[in-house]
Each structure stands twice: as C-alpha cells, then as structure tokens.
Amino acid sequence: MENQTIQNLSDEELVILSRKDQNNFSYIINRYKLKFFHYVRRISGVNDDDAEDLVQDIFIKIYLNINDFDETQKFSSWAYAIARNLVISNYRKRKVRPENYKINLDDDLMQNIASEINIEKEFDQLALKDYVVQVMTQMPEKYREVLILKYFEEKNYQEISDIIKKPIGTVGSMINKAKKELTKSLDKKYD
Fold this sequence. Notes:
Helix content is 73%, strand content 0%. By secondary structure, it is mainly α. It has 2 domains: 3-94, Rna Polymerase Sigma Factor, Chain: A, CATH 1.10.1740; 107-190, Orthogonal Bundle (Arc Repressor Mutant, subunit A), CATH 1.10.10. 27% of the residues are buried.
C-alpha cells in the first residue's frame, strides 16, 4: 500500500494493518507522537526528556495490547486512556520525589479557553496566560485533567468519558465546575 494511501486511513484501519504487519505500527506512532508528547507535558508537568520517555512507554504499551483493541470503539480514546494510566503510574512513582508542576499554554489554546468561559474583558494576554496557568496548576487534578482533555486535546465529552472512565454526565459536570472555578478566579483577579 502506498505511503500516501496509508496516511489517509482511519486509526482503526491502521490498527488492523498493524496487526497484520508490525511495520505499519510506525504510522500510528507518527500520527500520535506529538499529540501524546503535548498531552503528557500538559497533564503531568514533566520535563521534555521525561515526557519523551513516557511517550515511548505509551507506544510500547499500545503495541503490546493492540490485539485487545476493540475496533467498534474509537482508537484515540483507547490510546489516550493508556496514556493517562501511564501518566498516573509515573506520578505515583514520582510522588516520593515531587518536582514543580508546570502547565504549558500556547496562545491559541489560551484563546480557546478564554472564549469558552466568556471572558469579555480585554486583558493583557501574557498576564492572563500566566494567571490561567497559575490557577490551573492549583486546581484539583480531576478538574485540570478534564480541562486539558477538552481544550488542549480537543476531545469531546464521550471521548473524555472513555479516557477517564467516568459517565458522560459526570464529565460535563466536572468541566462546568472547572470552568466556574477558573472564571471565579479570573473575576477576582481582574475586578
């Protein structure tokens, strides 16, 4: 199959090809390596080297369990659930030697969050970005995680539900609570 044709295949079709020929797994890696790198950095706050190590572990785990993937599900949700579980395991291991947690926001993602929570005031973008990072860093992990999945990873409620293994209604409630907490903090800061 031509390289161009393979790149146009769905994730689920790539899984089927990877099961037939392990060399096709490289297409899954190429499609997801940058996404997972950013996700790991955002959700865990680890440095780039540790994030790369975690991403490598994620792909190993996906590869070893690819035969367990159910093609009737969405591959990205299944893969992100694996990524999330490895990040949690890594966090537990690192808990005995905690490091500073850091969230990385680029300007487009900052705009996405700001427009979603209806910030109508004009703020200095750099100050706003720094403050949002500060507030998100102090949020309970469950709220920070759903905000990252929704606005950074651009996952819908069903995908988030599949990833964090919570009912879709709970996901919606968590996102609303997280947005309210963020809005309340910003209103205090800029009133």
